[in-house]
Amino acid sequence: MDVRYFLGERLAFIQQLYVNCCAPFVDRQRKIDAEEEPYIPLYNEDPDSPFLSEWLEAEDSIQVIGYTCVSMLSASFHLYLKSWEVELGVPVDAGYKSIFKNHGWFNGYKHYFRAQFGVIFEECPCDIGLLEELTLARNRVQHLETISNQYPRYSEQDLQKMPSPYFINDAQRSMVAAMAEGERDWLLPPVIHVTEEKIFAAISEIARFAKWLEETDH
């Protein structure tokens, strides 16, 4: 089976899904910002836009679409590695079960490929940290802790693994940059924030990893 071909099909689908689903909400925000029909405000002295709730609703919608695509990307990448496990004919045996259970499937496959085929994921020229974070972000998206907020946050355990998360907004990133190393104590853990740039970067890194893996001798 051409595993990378099917991965590529999934990645292309997720990319177009994100763009096409976000398009009407991005356009709504653009029209509100530009004060275009039907978002032309009547005169008032309130500095906030009278269409702020509509703008925020569009932003919430964009983020939910992003969370969905993050989950789909993580699932597709997982399926890709599982498919190679089948193709290579060397199943993950009981010796790896504790790693998969306690450290997640990505770290489990790191150990599996190193031990069975001498393939070291860290030697890949792509951003391995981003690929690992993709799985963590997916877990947070899928397991919200409160019904009162639809924006998922990184857990304290996540932040111990990655003090400077990729899926955060610019304001939070500036806060991380301003903090001294070892002093990154969050009053509230940062919200997972997804953008087109981040989705496209994740897609690109998964594709680069797949190309590298299949060109590596094993």
Descriptive report:
The chain has seven helices and no strands. With 218 residues, the chain is mostly helical. It has one domain (3-152, 196-215). The chain is 64% helix and 0% strand. The model has no long low-confidence stretch (mean pLDDT 89).
Mean pLDDT: 89
Q: How many strands?
A: 0
Classify the oligomer.
Answer: single chain
Calculate the terminal CA-CA distance, rounded to whole Å. Answer: 17 Å
Fraction of residues in helix? 55-70%
How many distinct folded domains?
1
Structure described in brief:
The protein is mainly α. It has helices at 3-34, 52-88, 97-117, 128-142, 156-161, 170-178, 196-215. The relative contact order is 0.14.
Keywords:
mainly alpha; 218 residues; elongated; 0% strand
Task: Please render the helix and strand layout as text.
Elements: H1 3-34, H2 52-88, H3 97-117, H4 128-142, H5 156-161, H6 170-178, H7 196-215
Helix pairs in contact: 1-2, 1-7, 2-4, 2-7, 4-7
